[in-house]
Amino acid sequence: MTASSPGAPSGTGRRLLGLLTPRPSGWQTPAATAVAVVAALALSSALITLTGGSPSASVQALFEGSMADWTAWTSTLLYTAPLLLVAVGACVSARSGSFNIGQEGQVLIGALAAAWVGLRLAINGPALLVIMLLAAALAAGAWAGLSSLMHRLRGVNVVVSTMLMTFVAQQVVAYAVNMPWLLQESRVGNAPVSPQSNPLPPSGLLGSFGEYPGLQINGGLILAVAAAVLAAVAITRTPWGFRLTMLGRNPLAAKHAGVRVNALGGLALAISGALAGLAGAVLLASPVGVNRLQPGMAMNIGWDGLLVALVARNRPLAAMPVALLFGVLRSGGGFLAATGVPSFLVDVVKALLVLAFVAPPVVVALARRRRSGGRPAGARREAAPAAEEAIA
Amino acid sequence: MSAADDISTILSSGIRLTVPLAFAACGEYLAERAGTMNISLEAMMLGAAFGSVATASATGSATTGLVAGVLIGLLIGFVHGNLAHRLEVNTFVVGLVLNALVLGLTSYLITISSFDSHQVTQVSVPWLRDIPLIGHPLFVERWPVYLLLLIVPLTWWLVERSRWGLELRAVGEQPQAADVTGIRVNLRRRQALLWCGALAGLGGAYLAVGEVGSFNQNMTAGRGYIVIAAVIFGAWRLGRTLLGCVLFGLADAMRLALPALGLTMNSQLLVVAPYLLALVAMLVFTTRNREPKSLGQPFVRGST
Amino acid sequence: MTTVDERARELTPPSTPALRLRGVSKRYGPVVASDNVDLDVNHGEIHGLLGENGAGKSTLMKILLGLVQRDSGTIMRGDTPVAVRDPQDAVALGIGMVHQHFSLIDALTVWENVILGDTGRIDRAAACRQVEEVSRRYGLPIDPTARVERLSAGERQRVELIKCLRRDPSVLILDEPTSVLTQAESAELFTVLRHVVRAENRAVILISHKLAEITAATDRVTVLRKGKVVFHSPTGDTTPPELARWMVGRDVSLRAEGAALGMLPVDGAAPSGDPPAQTTAESPSGAEAEAVTPAETTAEPAAGAGSGIAPALRLRDLTVVIDGVTVLSELSLDVAPGEIVGLYGVEGNGQSTLGDLLSGLVLPSSGTVELTGRPVELERPGALHRAGLGIIPEDRHSSGVVLDMSVAENLVMKSIGDVSGRGFVSRRKMHAVARRLAAEFNIVAPSLDAPVRSLSGGNQQRVVLARELSAGPSVLVAAQPTHGLDVGAIEDMYQRLRDAASEGVAVLLISTELEEVMALASRIAVICSGRITGVLPAAEATAERLGMLVGGVAA
């Protein structure tokens, strides 16, 4: 998007905020959401039934794969951690008025940086892990920051540039694992070499609390929950969060009030990238994968994390249960195939659920406006000052 | 093989890879001129690809499959249009969700079904096909390719010369002004999305029942995003957008031909070219492009 | 039925009614925007529709244009009831509107804009021919192939008129048409309107909140208040004070409140010194005494502004270039403590940019801003605020308030550090500050936690004013501070500005309302095409001289 005048904010971002951030509403929105969720689940069941599967068996399989025992819970939480990290980042940038949709690429860049550091630095001990996480956050933060820079210098729309950069990131990682001098795995004898990195050294792995077969809580989850709580406090309680909210709701007023609009907006985008990058490092270093950098390792965590934030309406704390739900669907999805229902079903369910959460508030607001005659709220009250009560 | 044969082969494959992009680009171009940044293009192409193969298998006619693809594109355009330009759900969110939904749904369905292979017939133009180098690539093609000869000028005429197009452009630029003038802004945007859906559907269906003859999971593999990159690269001009499609198609053909040519070049640069070129175009042409001023912004009467 | 007919006969003497409204009502939720409105507009006359902001003028017009649907009532063309479901219906019925804002598409050419909203095939040659024809007939020269984005405000107005007249409307509606025009351009407009009415027997509805314009240009006048028709008369049979009374609903002194109603200060009232002080001198009756007293203390510094006292605000050679266009050109202006300086000009001559610059939204390409003798580092965010400049921005919705944040949050927006401790915002401190300011500035709101969006325009503006004055500024810039407010709120704003000046604040009033600057300012600077074309003491400022300066002619 071309800025029409210096300092003009991205119109898209501004408009988006109105739709994405929590707004006061009555009982209609929860009611409509409940109806929509039921409809989404009904549609999913219908799909299973029509294709010869059994909805109850599918639910059973989802449950077994995600919650039936501690092993299942462990697996669920392993998916929850990166999803939550991505979602928290998405909340921060959306609150600032920038809509970052490039998390899938930022996850990969984070994983790339973490892998590079983990495999190249010959450090033993916990320092390596810390440096890996930092490298992931910095690299992915800078990657997302590029979009902010492009917006600032040339008015390039952030949504579009973060989206395009995702595909660039995928090829950067593909390149890295195809180049022996970069990160491609070492050749052992005459064995064929795959496009992946060597496995991380043990000191570069995220440990877990708890022992198999009990519940294991991976360090990644602790990181993610800490990030969510921190972000929630920072956004709602600190002057920084106040400025961020101001920037998101009305960038011109924020600038007028002395907020460093470009710096803060860029920072918010970089934070969202950095958290996605951390998610990448967690994917790499936790037992959810094979602890090697692989081009496909992001597994749509970036896209899904974005959907988590959408469902949570950009509230970091609300993102925690939603991320858990998405984690359940992911880890349960693997068990579906055994019942004759392809695991892709969970993708359908997820998309329908997101729709069920995203559409109702907008529709309710629209219906309210239609009822009141098509005028925006401000204009309506303009003519009715008498309806207000004095507070003074 | 001679160098000329190599070039002809790459051209040939490049054109085949360009055609689905070009169909979809005509649609996306029109939708964006009307103000919708339609990222559900990927869903339209993928859904249509699946629908066309399923229908072709059921009816035994690839052409019927092609029509079904167009209808599925229309359906997705209809859903997107109504969610974004009637219910006022943010258009990017709608796009993300539709992409996820269609990818999940087609992946699900293809895993539990199997389809017969059908392809539309090939046309070979006498005389012209014997032109050296370009003869075979241009004049021995599946027949829907030649629909482009109709659709490209039609798209141009619609946008630049028809009253509908004038209104679309007004709606993409200043929807508030268009509204006051008596143009139904969101209706025009929904209509533009239908056009976009139909053409993206044609592109996706062509990919499936035209080129490949079957469907595989995530078969469009991000082609929708490439088309969006092409429109950006083309700075919202139809000619340049199509040029972008040709460039991106050729880059893809090059990538596929690398092993056959015995080149040990890394393919990533070719894969990434469309996105990089689009980014560069946005950085370079900012003042000279025709980006609609209200691209991606919802229209709500009374807000300015 | 008979009563309606009788009334109709009584209101429409010889000429035939072009348009009749009977009992038209429209509610928005609890608010009645249009209340049982009867209106007759005759062929061959200019009908003035007068009313305050929010009186229901625009709702009525939107109903006529099919942009809004009425709840009840009848619209008749001649004697036939008609339906106006959408703008196309309105066009078919011969109702055309000249919009002031948001109706031309910049990226399209003149002829494309003119045919926008028609139906059928596009014929470029025919369209251009029609544009030229209409433009010749009414003396509105324009190049049909020019892109609208290149046109001046006056030229855009011509395109609007041509677009409307080409459709040969029998009823022509103009909504606040002169706000973006110079006096010369306004004169051109009224010449065309007179021709349209007299020679072509069309009907014209002129919507305005300016008394002067209505009394000068119309044949009949209807006054709306709170959605109701409260007064109706041939313009010649009424007087500005009578109209003002109907408009506001109480007796008003045109001397004191005329500016708020769009009237020039009454004869000879061109103030010799400080206008409020002048009011004192001229209203010995003390009718509006409360408006006056504080001003006397300011007469001294204001008078001395030109000599001696160091200016609190000093703009030096400010040049702003946006997208290659020079919007402000070497603009210099001083404002002394206790003085109100008016910067007057027609909309679109650089005032908005100056306001943006003083809001910290735009940087000058050259030139400096000095506050109390010290240059301000404009590139540092918030520097102007810290240096003691408060500002009421021109468009409060775009940069003055954050509509979706609460009243309390908006009040502390610029001083969030002051209500925070140990890294956290203290809601207790925030509410304490907000409660104090709300009381002090009479802000009426459902609660301090209610979003500013839920406040009336006047109260939103008070939120801005309270926030800006609470920082104890040495300079207050008020850009179009009364835009969109009703008379009560306007009067309140005037009083606050006078009070601020009397307390020693240097006030820069940026306004497009001639009446406003003449009533408030002790010196008036005129801006045209981004330059100051002249600075006059209020005593020497007459409407004529200002009018010439506004048109770029040295007076």
TrEMBL record, chain B:
Which keywords fit this entry according to its UniProt record? Cell membrane, Membrane, Transmembrane, Transmembrane helix
Pfam families noted in UniProt: BPD_transp_2 (PF02653)
Compartmental location: Cell membrane
Name the residues that span the membrane: 46-79, 91-110, 143-159, 192-209, 221-238, 245-263, 269-287
Q: Which domain of life is it from?
A: Bacteria
Entry membrane topology: Multi-pass membrane protein
Q: What is its main location?
A: membrane
Q: What is this protein called?
A: ABC transporter permease
What does the record give as the organism's lineage? Bacteria, Bacillati, Actinomycetota, Actinomycetes, Streptosporangiales
